[in-house]
Write a structure and sequence with these properties.
By secondary structure, this protein is α/β, with parallel strands linked by helices. It has a single domain, classed as DHBP synthase (Alpha-Beta Complex). 32% of the residues lie in helices and 19% in strands. The chain has seven helices and eight strands. An eight-stranded mixed beta sheet has the order 7-1-2-6-3-5-4-8, sandwiched between helices. The chain starts with 5 loop residues before the first helix and ends in an 8-residue tail after the last strand.
């Protein structure tokens, strides 16, 4: 059985295509998401989180093939590292090759990418392609670990709350710089 039923995937896709913002369970915390091409939806997420656009946001996908355009120019060793660690709760910062919208990368020269192993996230991305994904919290507050916390933080500011359970990770994903190997979080 799919992690997100077909009728619900269609409903969620309609929200996303209408510049909507959704909340959904991920590997370790609840996330907020939207389509990366929607500047309006990204602006809504940033306003909900009270976060500056300059910080940038990451993208999540169901499979590495959904990121092919973002991976152009990577050498085989770096691509191999991604393939060895995905799917999983590791976000990599890759050199921006001009594919990601400015409102996603902010003032950065990198783009954050993760291939999730969470069944709900994978089902969403299989239906829509990559999504902007950021922890469901107001900047400076802990990330939501329940759907109730999501509602307390954002109320009606989220168009749809996707049902499901968190994965087995504790907290947000690890963030690593692919080129330097530096662990950011």
């Amino acid at each position: 059985m799919n992690a997100v039923a077909g009728w619900r995937r269609n409903l969620i896709s309609a929200y996303l295509l209408g510049d909507g913002v959704i909340a959904y369970p991920t590997e370790g915390v609840w996330g907020l998401g939207c389509l990366p091409a929607s500047a309006q939806a990204v602006a809504r997420i940033l306003a909900l989180k009270r976060r500056s656009w300059e910080q940038g946001l990451l993208l999540v996908a169901a499979d590495i093939s959904q990121f092919e355009d973002y991976l152009v120019g990577l050498d085989n060793d770096k691509r191999g590292e991604l393939e060895n660690n995905w799917p999983g709760p590791v976000t990599y910062l890759l050199p921006d090759n001009g594919v990601a919208p400015r409102w996603v990368i902010g003032n950065n020269t990198t783009v954050g990418l993760r291939v999730s192993d969470h069944p709900v996230v994978r089902a969403l991305c299989e239906s829509t392609g990559p999504l902007v994904s950021t922890s469901a919290n107001v900047t400076g507050h802990p990330a939501a670990v329940t759907s109730l916390q999501v509602r307390q933080y954002f109320g009606a500011g989220v168009d749809h709350l996707v049902p499901g359970q968190l994965g087995n990770s504790i907290g947000p994903s690890v963030i690593k710089h692919l080129v330097t190997g530096e662990k950011i979080r």
